[in-house]
Write a structure and sequence with these properties.
This protein is of the alpha/beta class and 252 residues long. The chain has one domain: NAD(P)-binding Rossmann-like Domain (Rossmann fold, 3-Layer(aba) Sandwich), CATH 3.40.50. The chain has eight helices and seven strands; from the N terminus they run βαβαβαβαβαβαααβ. Strands 3-2-1-4-5-6-7 form a seven-stranded parallel β-sheet, sandwiched between helices. Helix 1 links the parallel strand 1 and strand 2. Helix 1 packs across helix 8 and helix 3 runs parallel beside helix 4. Bound molecules: nicotinamide-adenine-dinucleotide.
């Protein structure tokens, strides 16, 4: 076990990467708070984790709302007594399209979910980590922050912010022994896939994107989950400020 009895909150855990991260963390002995806006899928993931014998509760959260984030952090502390790992995974994108076609409301929502959530998580989680003099954040960025694709400009910018905030938080919080890292996944097989592709999920359309990934396949949520275990593992205690590409070589 690499995460025995460590307490982890995973946002956006009702689907895709977040669900896989919860499964991988549970298998490594972590206790989980499955957090999502979608109560149905979040409850389902938490129930599946418990069915495997893992310790897991569900907490409804909209990561853009201060009170909701405060409630999430308080719930974890009340239930488990501490927090060791905060995975800021919840994220959304506009569909792949010309940049001027994305409306202002959609732009605002993307930055609220992808960027403001980091601010709110920090506001409520850093005091807990400081009290403990330990804890780590793992932010889910994207290769979009490093090697942006056309048609995703505003999403790309939001993930650029995730990368810079990760590094800035890492250096500011290091004296408190709080680590902050990010994972930059490549295009992966999750429900967000067609949003990013901006086209139907056909073998031909997939092939266009796979061609830009040297290892020759799209990402899988388990790729991201394995990286999330590595970054949370106490054996990674000297790793901070890293934005780890898990991308089959896409960013080379
Ligand atoms: N799938 C990809 O190709 C890919 C690539 C790089 C980065 N990412 C990033 O990975 C993360 C997870 O993406 P995914 O593909 O697993 O997506 P997904 O759509 O499968 O899951 C996202 C989850 O976040 C939840 N969510 C959305 N808004 C929320 C909010 N305001 N509060 C709480 N929960 C909310 C959704 O209900 C959903 O369960 C995102 O940050 C995304 O930008 C995805």
């Amino acid at each position: 076990m690499r995460l025995p009895n460590l307490v982890a909150i995973v946002t956006g855990a009702g689907s895709g990467f977040g669900e896989s991260i919860c499964q991988a963390y549970g298998a490594q002995g972590a206790k989980l708070v499955v957090a999502d806006l979608n109560v149905t899928t979040g409850e389902k993931v938490a129930a599946a984790l418990r069915a495997r014998g893992y310790d897991a509760i569900f907490c409804a959260v909209d990561v853009t709302q201060n009170k909701a984030m405060e409630h999430l952090i308080a719930t974890a502390v009340q239930h488990y007594g501490r927090i060791d790992i905060m995975v800021n995974n919840a994220g959304i994108s506009h569909a792949n399209q010309p940049m001027l076609n994305v409306g202002e409301a959609e732009f605002d929502r993307i930055f609220q979910v992808n960027v403001k959530s980091l601010y709110l998580a920090a506001q409520h989680c850093v005091p807990v980590f400081r009290r403990q003099q330990s804890g780590c954040f793992i932010n889910i960025g994207s290769t979009a922050a490093v090697r942006p694709r056309p048609g995703l400009t505003w999403y790309n910018g939001s993930k650029g912010a995730v990368v810079l905030i990760t590094k800035s938080m890492a250096v500011e919080l290091a004296p408190d022994k709080i680590r902050v890292n990010a994972i930059n996944p490549a295009l992966a097989e999750t429900p967000l896939l067609t949003t990013f592709m901006g086209s139907a999920d056909t073998p031909e359309n997939r092939a266009k994107f796979t061609a830009s990934i040297p290892l020759g396949r799209l990402g899988r949520s388990t790729d991201v989950a394995n990286a999330a275990v590595f970054l949370a593992d106490p054996a990674s205690e000297f790793v901070t400020g890293v934005c780890l590409e898990v991308d089959g070589g896409r960013c080379i």
